[in-house]
Amino acid sequence: MYGRDPWGGPLEINNADSATDDDRSRNLNDFDRAALSRPLDETQQSWLLGPGEQKKKKYVDLGCIIVSRKIFVWTVGLILAAGFIAGFITLIVKTVPRHHKHPPPPDNYTVALSKALRFFNAQKSGKLPKHNNVSWRGNSCLNDGKSDKSGAVLKDLVGGYYDAGDAIKFHFPKAFAMTMLSWSVIEYSAKYEAAGELNHVKEIIKWGTDYFLKTFNSTADSISQIVAQNTCLVVELSQECITRPNSNMFCGFMWWQVGKGDTSGGTSDPNDHSCWMRPEDIDYTRPVTECSSCSDLAAEMAAALASASIVFKDNKDYSKKLVHGAATLWKFARDQRGMYTASGADAATFYNSSMYWDEFVWGGTWMYYATGNQSYLYLASHPKLAKHAGAFWGGPDYGVLSWDNKLTGAQVLLTRLRLFLSPGYPYEETLQTFHNQTSIIMCSYLPYFSSFNRTKGGLIQLNHGRPQPLQYVINYILGKNPRKMSYLVGFGNHYPKQVHHRGASIPKNRIKYSCTGGIKFRDAKKPNPNTIVGAMVAGPDRHDGFHDVRSNYNYTEPTLAGNAGLVAALVALSGDRTTKIDKNTIFSAVPPMFPTPPPPPAPWKP
Predict the structure, then answer these.
(1) I need a surface site. Which of 155, 409, 439, 450 has the fewest CB within 10 A?
(2) Which residues form the active site (predicted)?
């Protein structure tokens, strides 16, 4: 009989076998060892071992998800390993010596910009801030405006800026200088920031506007009073002064000059031109000149305060104060017509005004940008006002922006309004004319046209050969001229050393030199002991000739208005050329020209 061997082979069973139980057991053990000596397939294992046990997996509960413990351990391990490797690499990078890549040096325009701004620090009057950064200057003229002791009016006119190489504070060119600086900040604040000069230039502007707010009753809504110098004779009282009498109240008049420049009296009449003294040592009386009909000056000062209010728009209280003062000055300019030099006063010799119509266009435009009040725009763009300002009859100075002629600047400002906001009727007629004229003026500056003469060295004669031609060029100033010299003090290696400037020419040596005692320094042939960094001198003549002589102010005297124009040009050219003009800030106070259209109606439903 044969049976099936469960281990895979034949098994013969013999009934006659008489082996004992022990023998059979021994034989089975031999079969077991033989069978286990070769591998078992899955079926055989299941027969031998029965159902196998499933190995239980372990998990980790992370709160939001449940993951396998094995995956969790591997993930954490990989993260730790990666962090260790990254930290090790960082340590190596930081400790291994390497060559640092330095930022590129600032371009020439940026270098010149920083220096040109320092000139304003050297021109400050009054109690100077600690960070003024001009070592040879100190507090000066701390009694300006206080010479009147009658008790009716005690006026503080300390502060502001000296105009040029003297110690006179001419308000007309100074107001123009502050307006130009504000305009440059409004359009190029990003470039000032990149040059590290934004806070500096804003501080310079504020020093000027703080002083202007002292020169009239900036808290009043209208001013119409004039106070005669030294006698405090009240000629006319404004309504506010009548209803709110106060013996110490300063109300209704306007100062336009501090100091005196008439030298007809010689040294027997010591003043800011006949004496050669450091401002810190001035001990003579400084007269104050006031006016009651000075539309040109008042409108220019209104422009200065209005433009500055946009610069300081983030300082709401101060900006509002500037706007209010500008509105008061504007009303004064419109109500009491006249030119500030018409009386033949001292300023007429140095800064004679030709008209006030251009200041009305210029000032009105800035008043509109500062307030958004369209009545200012209506006046500034009125065809009759444009005609009075010379927009249609030309002239030798047509197209030349200066402290006396603001028409070109106003035309540029209003052209921007037309391009970006397009106000339309009733302004379009004049704005379109200004736009066309601006394009023609810009072309007239190019060498291709013959509107203006040029020297052999390339200096355009926008002022037709008169002194101070450098107000209208740039590269020529910085050394691209026949003399290969810089006309900006402190820029380059070759620049004027005998600048016509009292403070720069007299040493700061704790010796007080009298009115005539400082003349020896004026006439000396040596360089100034103090370098007035950033001062742009008057410049060469019409033949590119220049004499570095301190006694000749037509060559070597700097001015506030000249430096302000230079700063505005330098910041526009400085730094990254991809940084464009700011097109929006100047319109920050201007409301939408047209009403917002109503929302579309809801969709119709049957």
Answers:
(1) 450
(2) 500, 548, 557
